[in-house]
Amino acid sequence: MKRFLIGSTLLFIIVAFKADKAAYRIFDAKGKESSYEKLLKEAKEADVVLFGELHDNPICHWLQMELSKDLFEAKKNNLVLGAEMFEADDQIVVNEYLAGRISEKTFKDECKLWPNFPGDYKPLLDFAKKNKLPFVATNIPRRYANMVYSKGIVMLDSIDAEAKKWICPLPMKYDGNLKCYKDIVSSAGGHGGDNLPKSQAIKDATMAHFILKNWSKGKSFLHYNGSYHSNNHESIEWYLKQEKPDLKVFTIASAEQSNMDTLAKESIGLGNYILCTPETMTKTR
Fold first, then answer.
1. Taking a C-beta distance cutoff of 8 angstroms, is the pair 281, 58 a contact?
2. Domain coordinates of the chain in residue numbers?
3. Cα 42 to Cα 61: distance, rounded to the nearest angstrom
4. With bands split at pLDDT 50, 70 and 90, how would you rate the model's confidence at 20?
5. What is the C-alpha to C-alpha distance for residues 186 and 184, in angstroms, rounded to an integer?
6. What would the mean pLDDT of 108-113 be, rounded to a whole number?
7. What is the pLDDT of residues 29-49, one digit of tens each?
8. Residue 67: which pLDDT band, with cuts at 50, 70 and 90?
9. Helices (H), strands (E): how many in the chain?
10. If you average pLDDT over residues 150-163, what whole number do you get?
11. 95 burial class (0-12, 13-18, 19+ CB within 10 angstroms)?
């Protein structure tokens, strides 16, 4: 009877384990299931880590924090953080907040923040503040990206010299044959012409510019951005490599699927590792 009870208990545990629903899975570039430990090991060896998130996915934000903590444990003050979600002309405000010179209220009043800043990006900024790490606002001010979309990139030549400090050097390199930009044109059905993909490219180029400006040999730069800004080793990474071909860039892509048993074909190769979460995952906004 005792043996029967033990066997029944083990069977119950096994069945219950198989019934668990995974909150996420990690796959390598070839679509083979992998682990956070392997991802972390490779991230530690990179000069720049591009963490491509889905902006409203809580698992992405949770893993960003975990990776930040683990890289800080390994790199200490040689770690630099930065994000798409902060525009370059807000860098002074970010620095003043990190240094404790202004209150949180003043920071929120002065900085152009995304709606999901409180739960998703403030913890990362406060992590930098607590550990005295630099946090770089890498994105182009939105008004200039909008200018490229509505009037063409040539209009940036006319802006004030002081304003040009907040964008990548001009003229900007651009390859319209990259998949990331061809896909934008395709999804828009040609609407916006070349201005649409170039308004995206100016963001990628500017983020790459400020990453390199704040990185030096021996440092590790962890950058948070939308996955589409680093998928397929294009976009930001393409611009990074234009300036520093030997730079060790490591990318994490994010994808959602209805079934996570295997990685969808279209997600294979999106990054060095792909963070896969269920389509039904709760959203942060």
1. yes
2. 34-43+51-216+227-278
3. 20
4. confident
5. 5
6. 98
7. 999 999 999 999 999 999 999
8. very high
9. 10, 7
10. 96
11. middle
Residues 6+ apart with CB under 8 A from 269: 29, 30, 232
**3-state DSSP: the chain helix, strand, coil percent, rounded to 5?**
50, 15, 35
- Specify the fold of 34-43+51-216+227-278: Rossmann fold (3.40.50)
What is the rounded distance in angstroms from the CA atom of residue 272 to the CA atom of residue 252?
Answer: 6
Look at phi and psi of residue 211 and say left if phi exceeds 0, alpha if psi is from -120 to 50, else beta. Answer: alpha
Helix (H) / strand (E) element for 257: namely: strand 249-257
Give yes or no for residue 205 having a pLDDT over 60.
Answer: yes
d(Cα 273, Cα 228) in Å, to the nearest integer? 14
What's residue 19's pLDDT?
Answer: 52
Alpha-carbon separation of residue 102 from 31, 98, 107, 132 (angstroms): 46, 9, 7, 15
Q: What is the CA radius of gyration of the chain?
A: 21
Residue 191's pLDDT is 74
Query: CA of 128: how far to CAs of 63, 93, 124, in Å?
Result: 16, 14, 6
CB 263 within 8 A of CB 241: no
Which residues, listed in sequence order, are joined to residue 27 by a DSSP beta bridge? 33, 274
Contacts of 240 (CB under 8 A, 6+ apart): 48, 208, 211, 212, 247, 249
